[in-house]
Design a protein that fits this description.
The chain is α/β, with parallel strands linked by helices and 251 residues long. The protein has one domain: 2-enoyl-CoA Hydratase, Chain A, domain 1, CATH 3.90.226. It has helices at 29-43, 66-74, 77-96, 113-119, 147-155, 157-166, 172-177, 187-202, 206-216, 222-236, 239-250; strands spanning 5-10, 13-18, 50-55, 102-106, 109-111, 123-127, 131-133, 170-171, 183-185. The strands form two sheets. A six-stranded mixed beta sheet has the order 1-2-3-4-6-9, sandwiched between helices. A three-stranded mixed beta sheet has the order 5-7-8. A hairpin with a 2-residue loop joins β1 (5-10) and β2 (13-18). α1 (29-43) packs parallel to α3 (77-96), α3 (77-96) runs antiparallel to α10 (222-236) and α5 (147-155) packs across α6. This is Enoyl-CoA hydratase/carnithine racemase. Belongs to the enoyl-CoA hydratase/isomerase family. It comes from Microbacterium immunditiarum.
């Protein structure tokens, strides 16, 4: 059976691939657990200078696997918290605290939980035709993986609220223009530009890079993400939201 998460380390660059292309790389509990394991191993690898997160098969990540979420939500708040949001919080903490720079290389879709996962990285870079958006609101849901905090940190409160409450998608070029992405490139130029960026990062003195990242991470409070998750747990286990999840899963 293929691994749901791939890892390739070449020189100072570690590339982590989400590998459920038939599900548009939606993450389930197996993906969350494997991602956490991979990141933990890289945190202790002094030879790694940058981590790239990408999606196999041409799309980054379409979000969380609602089939699994729905099943846990029907089990009640404890099941949903223990089975989904605790692992998701652990992964968020692991990814945001990694000592080396992290880059989300976004092609295709980065939606809902997929966008939240990308925003846990230090940098988001996109192809011009990539589509990014929170979109929880379009299914009648609220964000639960940190979007209210992570998106506001990148684009400001007003723009973040607009994107979350309208549920609209943005293309790569707009994502770069509003600060959601660092840059966007044409598909045929994306790989070369990414490699140039990675080479620039890995050429710097590792101790200096780690110190800068540690100092800048002090502006981000994971407790605010935990608070968002607590609200999501209560909402997703309520009867009206369970009905929404059931209709979405059957639709």
């Amino acid at each position: 059976m293929e691994d749901v998460v791939t890892l390739e380390v070449e020189g100072a660059v570690a590339r982590i691939g989400l590998n459920r292309p038939s599900k548009r790389n939606a993450y389930n509990r197996a993906v969350l657990a494997r991602l956490d394991e991979v990141l933990a191993s890289l945190a202790d690898d002094e030879g790694v200078g940058v981590v790239v997160l990408f999606g196999q098969g041409g799309t980054f990540c379409s979000g969380g696997d609602l089939v699994e979420v729905r099943g846990l939500a029907h089990g009640g708040q404890d099941d949903l918290q223990d089975g989904w949001f605790d692992p998701l919080y652990g992964l968020t903490r692991r990814l945001t605290s990694l000592p080396v720079p992290t880059v989300a290389a976004v092609r295709g879709l980065a939606l809902a939980g997929g966008l939240e996962l990308a925003m846990c990285c230090d940098f988001i870079v996109t192809s011009d035709d990539a589509r990014l958006g929170d979109q929880h609101i379009n299914a009648g849901l609220i964000p639960g993986g940190g979007a209210t905090q992570l998106l506001a940190e990148r684009v400001g409160r007003q723009r973040a609220m607009e994107l979350i409450l309208t549920g609209r998608r943005v293309r790569g070029q707009e994502a770069a223009a509003i600060g959601l992405a660092l840059w966007s490139a044409a598909e045929d130029e994306f790989d070369a530009r990414l490699e140039d960026f990675l080479s620039t990062l890995t050429a710097k003195r590792p101790a200096a890079v780690e110190a800068v990242k540690l100092l800048m991470s002090r502006t981000f409070d994971l407790e605010d993400v935990r608070a968002e998750m607590a609200v999501a747990v209560r909402d997703m286990t309520s009867p009206p939201t369970l009905e929404l999840l059931d209709s979405f899963g059957n639709g």
